[in-house]
Amino acid sequence: MSRxxxxxxxxxxxxxxxxxxxxKKTEYYALALIPNRLRSGPPESSAVSxxxxxxxxxRVRLEWNPGSPISARTLIIGAENRLEHIDEAILVCxxxxxxxxxxxxxMAEIEVLVNDHIKxxxxxxxxxxxxxxxxxxxxLALVYPETGGGGKDxxxxxxxxxxxxAFRSLAHNxxxxxxxxxxxxxxxxxxxxxxxxxxxxFIFKQLDEGNRKNNGKLHKYGKLGFFR
Length: 228
Known about the structure:
Rossmann fold; seven-stranded parallel sheet; 39% helix
């Protein structure tokens, strides 16, 4: 039986690296990308040139409007239909960076960040965990980088860290509640940029093991070792 993997998040080097690892584990996987609707152009986190492009033949693209709860449900149904079953859901929060003074923030971009990069995760988690609870198995993997705030001469990124903090809080609460659920919940944080390939390989090493002792655990990855 083919391994049913769905990956969701915004376009970035990290999600590309995770796609490449997924393609090694199964014939095809489902991918749902958060659309780039920001007015300021491609965000910093969408720099994908550092990672090899994932194989198109393994990718099953699914449409997703993160700000819509109906879209979250439709996405899960679409993944179940295309994959036949969902074994692992890998949610990757690597929000775009918008460096701008507070007075210069774009109102439309604030709406996009809140709808797509905050609300969207809550809608998707609700639908995905309901499926795992019903089938009494599955693995929910919550992935996020621990990115820095930029140099002292750069404008502050007021939006990206807020979205990341919301996802981190969601992840920590899901990990705390994991012991009462029939499925596995694993957290992954990476402190180093530029090593997306290693981070992705580390994530799948834990997923492959499927060790129930790791349920509810946050795994930290870094150059000084897998755990720190």
